[in-house]
Amino acid sequence: MENFIANDKTPLGARYNDETKNIEFRLYSKNATKVFLCIFDKPQGEEAIMTLNMEKTKDDIWYTEVKDYVLNCQKRPVYYGYRLFGPNWQYNPNFELGSDIGFNSKFDGLSNRFNPNKIAYDPYCLELSHLPSDVNPGYNLFRSGAKFHLGNNAKWAPKSVFFPKKEEIMEGVSLRPFVNEIIAEVHLKDLTQRINMLENGTYLGASKFAKTIKNLGVTMIEFLPLNEYDSKQNGFNHWGYMPLGYFTLAKRYAFNKTDGSLLYEFRSMINEFHKNDIKVCMDMVYNHTGEAGLINNNPDDAILLSYALIDNASYYKTYSNGYYRSNSGCGNDFNISSPASMNLVADSIAFFASQGVDAFRFDLAAALLENSCDCDVIYDNINSLAAKLKDMLKQRNVDVIDDFNVSKKGIVLIAEPWTCGGDKCYQLGNFPSFWAEWNDISRDTFRKITIRPNEITPKQIREVFEGTPSKFKNNKSINYIASHDGFSLYDLNTYITRNPTTQGGSEWEICSNYSNSAYAQENAIRKQLALLFLSYGIPMIQLGDIIMHSKLGNNNSFNKDDAINYLNWDKATRKDSFENRIMEYIRNLINFRKDNPIFCDKNFKKCLTYHYDNGEIADFNNLGYWNNVNDKFFGVMINEGKNRLYIASNKSNDRLDMILPKVNTGFEWQICLDTSDFSYINITPRNYIEKNYILNSQALALFMEIKK
Questions:
Q1: Homologous superfamily of 603-707
Q2: CA distance readout (Å), 12 to 456, 519, 629
Q3: Of 134, 366, 549, 604, which residue is the least packed, with the fewest Cβ within 10 Å?
C-alpha cells in the first residue's frame, strides 16, 4: 500500500501563497464585464467588510489577492463571495446595492443572468458557510422574480469558506485489478444512523464501521453523493442528487461542524477505509446542479446562487427565451460541453482523487457524451467530455485505469449510461473503453429469471452470465440486482406494487410476492444473488441488501431521512434470523468468487460450455433452444480454474430431473450450493452426486468436480 500526500490545491478558487503570504482569488467568467470580491467577517448577518475589484486575466479568469495579515486566514476562516456585472446588467460606477442602476434585463438572448445585488459563492470553494434554506426556506432572497431581483442578499447568502488546509499523509490501498472488486452502494448517513455510537450518521461514524464492511467481503464502498446540497430544497431531499458545489462536501455528515474542519474529517474516513484495504467511490452529479431552475416555469423568476450569477451561459444548457433545458428531469442541465464545465469536472475529479478517492460513479452520465454547447443533443464518444476526460485528468497528474484486468495505479470511472430525457438518452455500451458502466440488462435479467421467467430465454441468461458481450467488448459491466433507485432486493421479492405513500417512483418495477410464500421468496433471493456473484462482470450490491433491508415498498426513498432508509444491523446479528442467514450466504458467495478467480479472468468466455438438461453440450446453432422462453433449463460448465464448475438453473415451477455432464477420469461431482435448500450457507463441496440431480422449482445448483 503506497502512501501519498493530500493537499487543498485547486486551479481556481482561493489559495494561500506561501511565498508572498497573500490569499489569491481566481474566478472563471467568460461573459462577465466587471467582478468584485466581497470579504465578510461573519457568514451571516453582516455586509461585506471589504469589496475588491478583480482584474480579468488570460483565459477569462478574474484575479485579485489580499495580504494575509489583513484577513489572518491561518487562524480563522475567510468568508467570501462575488458580485458580477455583465451584458444584461452593465456596470455603472454609480451603482448602489438594492438599485437597478445599469439594469437592462433579467436575462438576455445570450442567456446571461448577471445580477450584482446577489452574492455568488465560489464554484471551486471547498466548503459553504451555510445553506440557502438555513436563512430563507422559501428561497425568496435568491430569486430574480419581480419582488426579489433588486434585493441585496449579502447578509444571508451562503459564503465560500476558505481556511488553508495542511498537507496530510494518506493511506493507500493494495493494487489489484478492478474486475476483482466487490462494490457495495450505500448512503453515508444511512450506514450508521441506527448504530449506538456518538458519531452515528457522519464521516467519522462511517470510518468506525469500516472493519464491519471489510468482514462482509466488500472491497469498494460506493457512497451516494457527498457534495454539499440543500436537503430542504423543493420539499425534502435526503439522497443528495442536487449538488450545490463539486468541491464542497456535505457538512451535515460532519461530526465536527467547525468551519474549516470538514475536509480533515473526510480524509480521516478515507484513511480508515484504506487501512482496511477498502476502496472508496464517490457518486458525482455533473449532469445538473441544485441551483438554477425557474419558479412556476417563469423565465423571469430564476434561482440564483452561484453558477447562474457567475456565467449562466457557460454553465447551463439554456434557450434564448430564458428557459433551461432539463433532460436530467431536475430543472436544469449542466452545459457539460463548455470549456468552463469540462475543466470544472476534470478539476473536481482530480481534487477528490488527490484526497484518496479511488473511483467515481457518474450520475446520468449520458450527459457527458454530449458534444454541443446548445440544447441540441449530439452524443459523441470521440470528442465529448466522456472521451476526453482520461487525457484531461492525465494533464492533472491523475491516471485513469484503462485496463480493468491488470493491477494499475489510478482511478476508475463508472457511468450510469443513460439520462432521463432527450433523444437517444439510453447509451449503454457506448462509452469509451476506459469507462465501466452500470448494466441494467443484467439487473432486469437477474430479476426476471425468478419473477417473470416466461420472458427470459437461455440466450438472455447466457448474455448476462458472460458479462453482456453484445454491449461490452471488455470486462466493464457493473452487474447488479438493485440500487438506490427502485425497490431494495428484499422489497422487489416481497411486493407486487410500490407503497402508495411513495413520492414519485416508477411503476415499471419487476417485482413479485410469490403468492406470499416465504420459501419461494427466499429461494428467489438466493438464486438472484448466486447469479450476480457467479457471473462475469463486476458485482455491485446495496449494503442494505446484504442485511435484507426493507423500505416497506417505497421505491423512490430520496426524501426519507428516517427508518425507511436507515440500515438496521440488529436483525442481521441474530444467529437464527432470515437476515443473518442471507448475510452469511452473501459473505460466502463473495468468498467463493474470490477463491475462484476464473470469474474475473479475461478468458472466462473461452472456458465455457453450455449443456442441455440431459448433460449433453448445447449446440450454439440450436436457436430453438437458445431463443425459447419456454425452455426451463440453463446449464453452463466452467472448464478452468482449480476445479471444473457446473451451474444448473431451473426456471420452471416444477421439479426437473437433470443429468450432470460427464466427469473427467478420476473425478466426481460434488454439490456446493442449492438455492432451494437453505442449509447451504457455506459454498463448499459437501455431497457426492453420481449422475442425476433433482432441481427444485426455480432452483439453481452449483457443482464442483473433485478428485476421488
A1: Golgi alpha-mannosidase II (2.60.40.1180)
A2: 52, 58, 57
A3: 134
